[in-house]
């Protein structure tokens, strides 16, 4: 069984498979207090990431992007493991 934060650590890896973002100097992740772990990930379970662009704003030359992410167990009727 995978600990929730181990599963959570897969998000950056999976995110790189969804989007190709270039010319980034820094990425900051906010919202860890909003993470919800619906159920454990068992041995041989596969997880999948669904991401949604919630907003994008130019703050005087700095781009702030808010992305909602749901990590779920592939092929199972389940609650999301994580949402932001």
How would you describe this structure in keywords?
alpha+beta; 2 helices; 3-stranded antiparallel beta sheet; 84 residues
Could you explain how this protein is built, in words?
The protein has helices spanning 4-8, 11-18, and strands spanning 47-59, 62-73, 82-83. By secondary structure, it is α+β, with helices and mostly antiparallel strands. A three-stranded antiparallel β-sheet has the order 1-2-3, covered by helices on one side. β1 and β2 form a beta hairpin.
Topology:
Blueprint (H helix, E strand, L loop, with lengths): L3 H5 L2 H8 L28 E13 L2 E12 L8 E2 L1
Antiparallel strand pairs: 1-2, 2-3
**General form:** elongated
* Beta-strand residue percentage: 25-35%
How many distinct helices? 2
Count of β-strands: 3
Helix proportion of residues, in percent? 10-25%
What integer value in Å does the Rg equal?
A: 14 Å
Brief summary:
The chain is of the alpha+beta class and 84 residues long.
């Amino acid at each position: 069984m995978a600990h929730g934060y181990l599963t959570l650590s897969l998000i950056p890896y999976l995110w790189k498979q969804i989007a190709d973002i270039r010319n980034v100097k820094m990425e900051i992740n906010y919202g860890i207090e909003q993470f919800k772990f619906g159920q454990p990930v068992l041995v041989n379970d596969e997880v999948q990431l669904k991401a949604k662009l919630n907003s994008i704003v130019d703050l005087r030359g700095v781009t702030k992007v808010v992305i909602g992410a749901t990590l779920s167990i592939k092929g199972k009727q389940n609650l999301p493991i994580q949402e932001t």
